[in-house]
Amino acid sequence: MRIAIIDESASRASIIEEGLSQLPDCQISVITGRHGLLARIAEIDPEIVLMDLGNPSRDVLEEYFAVSRALSRPIAMFVDQSDDDAIASSIDAGVSSYVVDGLSANRIRPIMEMAVRRFNAFSRLQSDLDAANSKLTERANVDKAKRILMNTKGITEPEAYAELRRKAMSSSKRIADIAEALITAHELMKD
Amino acid sequence: MTQELSVGFLPLVDACLPIIAQEMGFAEEEGLNLTFMRDVSWATVLDRLLYGHSDVAHMLAPLAIATTLGRGRPAQPLAAPFVLGLNGNAITFSNELADKVAHDCDGELCDPKGLGARLRDEALARKAAGKPLRFGVVHRYSSHNYMLRYWLAACGMHPDDDVEIITVAPPFTADALAAGEVDGTCVGEPWNSVAVDRGVGRIVLATAQIWRRGVEKVLAMRESVLDERRESIEALIRAMRRAGEHFVNPANWEGHANLLARPEYLASDPKLILAAISDELILSQDSEPVHFKDFMFQYREAANFPWISQAQWLYTQMVRWDGFDYDPADAEKAGRVFRPDVYRSALRGQDSPLPGASSKVEGAVKSPLGVGAEQGDLVMAFDAFFDGKTFDPEQLEAYLASQT
Q1: Where, per UniProt, does this protein localize (chain B) (predicted)?
Q2: Candidates 3.40.190, 2.60.120, 3.40.50, 2.20.110; CATH matching A2-127
Q3: CB-based contact A56 B169, cutoff 8 Å
């Protein structure tokens, strides 16, 4: 089965490629760039195309499928037009798929399911990463707020932290939010 | 209780009405809270609409019709009870092509007939040399595609045989001009101005010069959503009419440009957005803006009223360029995508004029004309096609036959 993965995120593409390579009889090509997209597709002549929903070239690809005489067989969107649940779950995961007309559902389904799982796994990874990044920013903000307090009030670091914590508790806010507010106020005062 | 509606959109200036409705409090006045889902391709806006991620969407009018008729994918009935705007698109040529065929436009927008005649010579020469001119449009089922084709064909060029027309995603149109992948584009704002700003192209025509009152984006939804959320949809229509009144008031233009430019909406340069909404277009890099009245048309003359005849004109162009046979049942179905009944029911008793008819002869108004209205006064202005032809929906087949 010839599968083309079109994804501007090379890391996500490789995660999907790795997942699909576990399935038997899959020949996978990955396209990450926009240039020469249609020529590459014609060359690969895929039976299945997987493309992330956030890819601006989707309209270009659909146009190509609609008018192209280059492909021997027309490509129909999605696994099976009656299989709404499968389509909905792939849209939820953020992946669109185009399949050669007449390909049996049994052969397509495991590939689609794997792609959806891998897309979902990637989103979780991404949100973990975002959470980790925002934790890092928060920690940096708390450090900065402590330094502002230490400099302006001439207090020690533990005292500065205790002040932030006291204010957070008395106003039922997070320490990170208090720190951010303090930094903003400090910046305004400087101008 | 506040009703939630999620709105899918592409970052284009003509997504303005729902955004202003939400941000300026018109939605809230109607008991609505709008959330927005921005995407970068029409295919994804449509997928999200069909699979319920969004309730309603900013959509190319021809795409709503194509989806209903099942062109390119399984048929799903969509409804469009509100036109988000008329025109607002432009044709931009690469500097090289503009130098050849648009050099004597004197820093103004060109005359569509004169430009078309010069373009024809160049197109035929390029075709003979085996390197046909290539144009980019944003979608196969877009008014951009149909306006460009209408103009080319009326000027003696066959859009499929004499030139090439390909799809280019709006954010990449400037790149495609810069790289020489296309010789011209037909796209909405701010993308023409982005190309001009980067010095990779010149705006030569506004699509309003091809058809003075051409239908552009609509607010589309699944028919089932319209039935289930009818009250909320009608509330949204009222909120967007108020937003439109606010949108066209010059006192608000700068504020709107800044609002629309925000990262969650268009993520663009407010200066370029302001140019489009104030009808002041910069046609080539570093030149002074040129005033072009009604470049975008969002409010007056019941601009948001979904005329059945507009949908049917789009159907004629679909038949013309997709190369399938005219089918009266399809023509009927295409017309029914536009829902003047819903528009009327939402605005009855409000201060918006409501036309008495639901269809009109498109392109027939030569000078301001008072038309029958069931509510308010309605005067329609010059709405002609550049070649002077008119489209009478009662004579749909004859119109098709006249367009070879």
Answers
A1: Endomembrane system
A2: 3.40.190
A3: yes
Bridging pattern class, strands B184-188 and B134-137: parallel
Asked if B40 lies within 8 A of A81 by C-beta distance, the reply is: no
How would you classify the pairing of strands A95-100 and A75-77?
antiparallel
- For residue B138, list chain A residues with Cβ-Cβ distance below 8 A: 59
**Buried/exposed code over B304-341 (b: 16+ C-beta within 10 A; e: otherwise):** bbbbbbbbbbbbbbbbbbeeeeeeeebbebbbbbbbbe
Tens digit of each residue's pLDDT (9 = 90 or more) over B99-135:
999 988 988 999 999 999 999 999 999 999 999 999 9
Residue (of B111, B204, B124) closest to B156 by Cα position = B124
Q: Which CATH number fits domain A131-190: 3.40.50.10860, 3.90.550.10, 1.10.260.40, 1.10.10.10?
A: 1.10.10.10
Give the rounded distance of the alpha carbon of B70 from its chain centre.
21
Report the residue of chain B nearest A51, measured CA to CA: B44
Residue in A closest to B11 by C-alpha: A56
A96 vs B48: CB contact, 8 Å cut-off? no
Q: Where are the domains of chain A?
A: 2-127, 131-190
Q: What is the pTM of this model?
A: 0.88
- Here the ipTM equals 0.86
